[in-house]
Amino acid sequence: MPRGAPGGLITFTQRTDFWQDRDFAGMIETLEAEGFWTRVTITHPLDYIPGHADFTDEIKVIHALCKVR
After folding, report:
1. Per-residue pLDDT tens for 40-65?
2. Mean pLDDT, rounded, for 4-11
3. Does residue 18 belong to any structural domain of this protein?
4. Does residue 4 sit within a domain?
5. Beta-carbon contacts of residue 68 (< 8 Å; ≥ 6 apart)
6. How many domains does one find in the chain?
């Protein structure tokens, strides 16, 4: 797997439905255990697109920030 520059930051967001279905928490944990990065922060679920008819208020978004080792 390619590596980023040590000390660099990687940030991404994921909808809560995909976060659960695709086990993003497990992926983040695995990459941390393998020494690729360290978690800086993972937010609690936040509003995704408030009031949008296709997403309702049930789908939220999680923001993750990791630091490359």
Report:
1. 999 999 988 878 877 777 889 999 99
2. 89
3. yes
4. no
5. 3, 4, 5, 6, 7, 8, 9, 10, 36, 37
6. 1
